[in-house]
């Protein structure tokens, strides 16, 4: 056992600073908690690092989730055998169970095995917030003289175990709480605070973009959206849900008393040493409020253009259009497709120190040096249109609008471009060329669209194949991919000339420990890019149909999202199945629109 204090060990490892130690000590003066718990609540250290350091210091094992009993009744067996009150254990934040002495994982024994064996042959496991609590150990030593193992574990695991312990002792039906003060009191309880903090920490560690907390009849689930796909992380007893939901509402400045109507909240918080922008949405459901939390890191390094996946013909178009002196450049795609990241990278490239750059966003997702960033506030009437009019009085050279949502914002953006400003923005359309029809639907005349637009991009995010386990694709997958590429060529796609000299490397996902058995790790964007010039500019000005606009774009080397996805799958970056999963619907919609346009 290392006799040094945990704070010294963490400072030595370089994971906290002396200032963090001072803040934790000050926190302890106000709130009687362990020093490590104080660090967690202040967001100064990640829980897995704290547990690893404590395990080394105290020479105690760290429990995995698989070791904990799943049935509520099991939590009452060992205390009953040793005549220990469940209420007292709950107050001590401790749970007990029997395990096999030869089991290094300390897995709880099945109740049937307990009935069939002599308890003297078991090992007692103590899982507690403070397993070295003298009063706790003294009481246990009086009740049990056999093998005893003290264990550490994540707060969320202990909180779930304590909830099952309380359920085993209470044996009463859980009812919905209605008293606001009681809800607030529950939300401020240490186990609830620690549980919510642990959920945020786990989400940050897994690079989750969203947290979903969803109540059902007897339990609630916590799911993370990682690389665009939801994954179940843990299940907790329903009795904890009201306290957890109230805690999240408090953190995000929402009304904890209102549970009948949807709410939106936001707040900047600090977890595991990172400043995070939280956007929280609540939606009343049959079994309680569904909560969805979007996590936006305030300070993170933007990926390079190559890292984003902007390559080949699309990269050439992008490099050309962002160097235009004026005009509108739009990036389209659904929410969560990476549009803002692409725009921020574009702003970094044009931020040469000689131009005034102003953005209006909702919310401000990245902090950028040398750029004036404005937060839109629709709740007080300060929307994009009003903010944009104010920005134009600030003598800007470059403007970025978070999103064009209405006709007024679209018209002001077009006028700004026509009066010498370079305007970047996003638009919710499925394809790049679909932005043309969307602008006209918002009331912008086609000749103004043609005169002001400089370039259009559309993008989606595909999961990258895991480098550790991806394997060559089978013959059927390769044949399907080659069929899709041949079909695109028949439709007029001009594949890059280099394709003939580059060998194909089609791959398929497998799954391993490195990628949590998904077969994928990280994401890459696929793009459409069109410079508004030549025949394409004329087609827009004369309000041609979508089929003619697409033909003009094809002649200029335009590649669709599906085609860019196939090129990336051909190099082994992603799989054909992932391309079809994300982009199959886009292709069906485009083909349907072009068919209607050709018949009209």
Could you describe the 3D structure shown?
The structure is a single chain. By secondary structure, the chain is α/β, with parallel strands linked by helices. It contains 24 helices and 18 strands. A hairpin with a 2-residue loop joins strand 8 (274-285) and strand 9. Helix 10 (180-187) crosses helix 12 (241-251), helix 16 (384-392) packs parallel to helix 17 (407-418) and helix 19 (446-452) runs antiparallel to helix 21 (534-541). The longest helix has 24 residues, at 576-599. The radius of gyration is 29 Å and the shape is elongated. The chain starts with 5 loop residues before the first helix and ends with a helix.
- What is the straight-line distance between the termini? 81 Å
The overall average pLDDT, rounded, is 87
* Radius of gyration based on Cα positions: 29 Å
- Poorly predicted regions are 171-178
General form: elongated
Helix/strand class: alpha/beta
| Sheet with the most strands, sense and barrel status | 7 strands, mixed
How much beta, percentage-wise? 15-25%
Count the beta strands.
Answer: 18
Q: If strands are numbered along the chain, what order do they take across the biggest sheet?
A: 12-11-13-14-10-15-18
Oligomeric state: single chain
Number of helices: 24
Question: What share of residues is helical?
Answer: 40-55%
Quick synopsis:
The chain is of the alpha/beta class.
Question: What are the SSEs and their pairings?
Answer:
Blueprint: H1 6-13, H2 18-30, H3 35-41, H4 47-58, H5 77-82, H6 86-91, E1 94-99, H7 111-116, E2 123-128, H8 134-143, E3 148-151, H9 155-170, H10 180-187, H11 190-205, E4 210-215, E5 219-226, E6 229-237, H12 241-251, E7 263-271, E8 274-285, E9 288-297, H13 305-308, H14 312-321, E10 327-332, H15 339-350, E11 357-361, E12 372-375, H16 384-392, E13 398-401, H17 407-418, E14 422-427, H18 434-441, H19 446-452, E15 453-465, E16 471-472, H20 475-490, E17 507-508, E18 520-531, H21 534-541, H22 546-555, H23 561-570, H24 576-599
Parallel strand pairs: 2-3, 10-14, 10-15, 11-12, 11-13, 13-14
Antiparallel strand pairs: 1-2, 4-5, 4-9, 5-6, 7-8, 8-9, 15-18, 16-17
């Amino acid at each position: 056992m290392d006799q040094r204090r945990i704070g010294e060990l963490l400072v030595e490892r370089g994971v906290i600073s002396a200032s963090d130690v001072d803040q934790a000590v000050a926190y302890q003066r106000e709130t009687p908690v362990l020093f490590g718990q104080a660090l967690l609540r202040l967001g100064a250290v990640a829980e897995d690092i704290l547990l690893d350091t404590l395990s080394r210091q105290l020479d105690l094992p760290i429990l995995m989730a698989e070791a904990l009993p799943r049935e509520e009744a099991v939590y009452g067996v060992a205390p009953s055998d040793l005549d220990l009150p469940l209420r007292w254990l709950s107050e001590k934040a401790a749970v007990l169970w029997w395990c096999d002495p030869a089991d290094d994982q300390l897995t709880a024994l099945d109740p049937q095995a307990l009935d069939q064996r002599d308890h003297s042959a078991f090992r007692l496991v103590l899982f507690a917030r403070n397993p070295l609590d003298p009063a706790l150990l003294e009481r246990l030593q009086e009740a049990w003289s056999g093998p005893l193992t003290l264990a550490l574990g994540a707060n969320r695991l202990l909180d779930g175990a304590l909830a099952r312990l309380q359920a085993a002792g209470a044996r009463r039906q859980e009812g919905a709480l209605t008293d606001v003060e009681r809800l607030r009191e529950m939300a401020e309880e240490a186990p609830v605070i620690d549980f919510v903090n642990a959920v945020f920490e786990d989400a940050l560690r897994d690079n989750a973009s969203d947290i979903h907390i969803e109540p059902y009849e007897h339990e609630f689930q916590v799911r993370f959206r990682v690389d665009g796909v939801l994954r179940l992380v843990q299940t907790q007893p329903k009795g904890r849900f009201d306290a957890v939901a109230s805690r999240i509402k408090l953190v995000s400045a929402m009304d904890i008393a209102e549970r009948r109507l949807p709410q939106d909240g936001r707040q900047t918080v600090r977890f595991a040493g990172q400043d995070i922008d939280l956007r929280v949405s609540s939606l009343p459901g049959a079994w309680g409020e569904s909560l969805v939390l979007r996590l936006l890191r305030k300070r993170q390094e933007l990926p390079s253009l190559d890292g984003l996946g902007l390559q080949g013909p699309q990269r050439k178009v992008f490099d050309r259009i962002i160097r235009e002196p004026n005009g509108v450049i739009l990036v389209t795609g659904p929410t969560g497709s990476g549009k803002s990241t692409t725009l921020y990278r574009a702003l970094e490239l044009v931020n040469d120190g000689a131009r005034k750059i102003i953005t209006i966003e909702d919310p401000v997702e990245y902090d950028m040096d040398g750029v004036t960033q404005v937060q839109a506030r629709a709740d007080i009437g300060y929307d994009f249109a009003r903010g944009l009019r104010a920005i134009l009085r600030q003598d800007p050279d470059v403007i970025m609008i978070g999103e064009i949502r209405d006709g007024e914002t679209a018209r002001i953006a077009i006028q700004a471009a026509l009066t010498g400003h370079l305007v970047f923005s996003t638009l919710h359309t499925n394809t790049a060329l679909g932005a043309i029809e969307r602008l006209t639907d918002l009331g912008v005349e086609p000749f103004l669209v043609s005169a002001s637009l400089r370039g259009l991009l559309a993008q989606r995010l595909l999961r990258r194949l895991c480098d550790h386990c991806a394997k060559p694709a089978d013959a059927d997958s390769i044949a399907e991919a080659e069929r899709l590429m041949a079909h695109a060529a028949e439709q007029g796609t001009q594949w890059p000339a280099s394709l003939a000299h580059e060998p194909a490397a089609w791959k398929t996902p497998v799954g391993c420990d490195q990628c949590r058995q998904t077969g994928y790790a990280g994401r890459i964007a696929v793009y459409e890019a069109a410079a508004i010039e030549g025949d394409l500019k004329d087609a827009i000005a004369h309000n041609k149909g979508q089929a003619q606009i697409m033909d003009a774009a094809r002649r200029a080397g335009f590649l669709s999202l599906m085609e860019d996805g196939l090129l990336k799958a051909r190099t082994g970056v992603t799989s054909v199945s992932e391309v079809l999963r994300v982009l199959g619907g886009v292709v069906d919609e485009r083909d349907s629109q072009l068919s209607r346009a050709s018949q009209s």
